Amino acid sequence: MEDTETSRRKWKRDDLTGEILPIQNVPLPLKYPAEINEGLWGGEAVVKGFQKRDPRRRRVPHYWVPVLKRTVVKSEILNTHLSVTVTDRTISLINDHYGFDHYLLKTPACDLVSMLALKLKKQILIELMNGCPRYAHDPQRQKEVYEEYKTYLSSYTPEEIEWYGLSWYEALCKLAKQKEAANKPVPLKNMYRKNLVEKLKAAGIDSTKTSPEEIS
To answer: Are 94 and 103 in contact (CB under 8 A)?
Structure first.
């Protein structure tokens, strides 16, 4: 709580001199390249700044890029190994969470900052919601995996899982398809024919004896 209040303050008093000094709390200018969605960077990004390489010269622009490496991670719920691009921070976070699945399920989407991570998390949630069917050949192991991870399902509804991990464009397309299916136009010819048949039944006339020319 104290850190939060300090981050909101703009000034501070020096305990020794009593001088009022401004608090330098400028957010880092981060850049998120397209490649970030193809790997798991653990929330890291490209930092834009300046370097003063020579005290006698002006500073020059510089970009600090995370060190990327390819490694293999194991997903217990999906029962598979995945070859992904990660950073040292990603590996550290996976170890801190005691597993790849725990890391994805505990970390909110705003901290994952990767479409690949969100897609994998959605796939894991769907698999967990269905009772871990990939372990159908081993019921005992299936029960153990489900019992270990089932608590994460309490944070989501089936509808939320269905929409989870979609990009802005994918969500718009999905919503458009749902609206189109819900408001599917009915030809007036069919509607008028249905109304006519109902009127004939109400009048006690058998519609099967009516010729198609009369109905149309």
So the answer is: yes
* Domain assignment present for 155: yes
Domain count along the chain: 1
Residue 105 domain-assigned?
A: yes
Q: Give the Cβ contact number of residue 91 at 10 Å.
A: 16
Q: How far apart are CA 124 and CA 7, in angstroms?
A: 36
- The CA-atom distances, in angstroms, between 7 and each of 10, 26, 48, 111 are 8, 10, 21, 20
Q: Classify residue 205: in a domain, yes or no.
A: no
Which residue has tokens 């008093």?
A: 13
Domain housing 39: 30-165
Please give the chain's pLDDT, 216 residues, in tens: 445 555 567 888 888 888 998 888 888 889 999 999 999 999 999 999 999 988 899 999 999 999 999 999 999 999 999 999 999 999 999 999 999 999 999 999 999 999 999 999 999 999 999 999 999 999 999 999 999 999 999 999 999 999 999 999 999 999 999 998 888 887 888 888 888 888 888 887 765 555 545 544
